[in-house]
Design a protein that fits this description.
alpha+beta; globular; 3 helices; six-stranded antiparallel sheet; six-stranded mixed sheet
Length: 231
């Protein structure tokens, strides 16, 4: 997924009210939009380099959007709205080799009483349902962890995937690791033990659990390689 224009470097001073950040850009202090509802734990600290995009939309109150942060070891994508775009591109290009062969890709599919991110159809008219989660929390010993806070919505999605598998469909839980300074993925049991147990149960029930790390630059983000998973 290429950015519409190369991102510009700035320095972050603070994040506040969840969706706002104060930055220093080209010698001036500016306020930028932060498209992330999460805690962003391990994703920023004062005076880190960051990368921002600029909108030409005259109706936007804030011209700049915080896209990436840089901890000195890795870029980290903090714009969570990009994750499904990255995956959609990977699905169209057949990058995720662990998936069964498929023909068509549909996004935002209604299932039971919720929505899942993607549905793939095969030549035999079978369906593959995929839920995507953006992962940016870094733990000890090179672990990428999810979630970074208790996630009742995430728990519900796992229950949906288990039910779909029991109904005879293929079901996939895909974790997109949006930083390059980690080497493996695990559920954050200390943060959300219920989610961790549900993920283990989903795997036992036959839900396919995948973790893919992105390759990030100020020009583009692409799904790059699978990471080992420890449940």
């Amino acid at each position: 997924m290429k950015f519409s224009a190369p991102l510009k470097k700035a320095k972050i001073l603070k994040r506040y009210k969840r969706f706002l950040s104060d930055l220093v850009f080209e010698g001036e202090e500016i306020c930028a939009h932060v498209p992330n509802t999460g805690s962003m734990t391990t994703c920023w600290a004062e005076n880190w380099d960051v990368y921002i995009s600029k909108s030409d939309n005259p109706k936007r109150k804030l011209k700049y959007t915080l896209e990436l942060t840089d901890n000195g070891e890795s870029l980290i994508c903090v714009n969570t709205s990009l994750t499904n775009k990255i995956v959609a591109e990977a699905l169209e290009e057949r990058t995720i080799k662990e998936l069964p062969a498929y023909e068509e890709v549909k996004s935002e599919v209604k299932v039971h009483d919720s929505r899942l991110d993607f549905m793939l159809t095969t030549t035999e008219d079978k369906k593959i349902y995929i839920e995507v989660k953006n992962v940016t929390l870094k733990g000890h010993d090179g672990y990428a962890l999810f979630p970074d806070a208790v996630s009742t919505r995430g728990q519900k999605h796992l229950k949906d995937l288990i039910k779909l598998k029991q109904e005879g469909h293929n079901a996939v839980m895909l974790y997109v690791i949006n930083r390059e300074d980690v080497e493996r993925f695990a559920p954050a049991e200390d943060i959300d033990s219920e989610y961790s147990q549900l993920l283990k149960e989903a795997s036992k029930q036959g839900v396919q659990v995948l973790a893919y790390q992105c390759k990030l630059s100020p020009e583009e983000i692409v799904l790059h390689r699978p990471l080992p998973i420890e449940l």
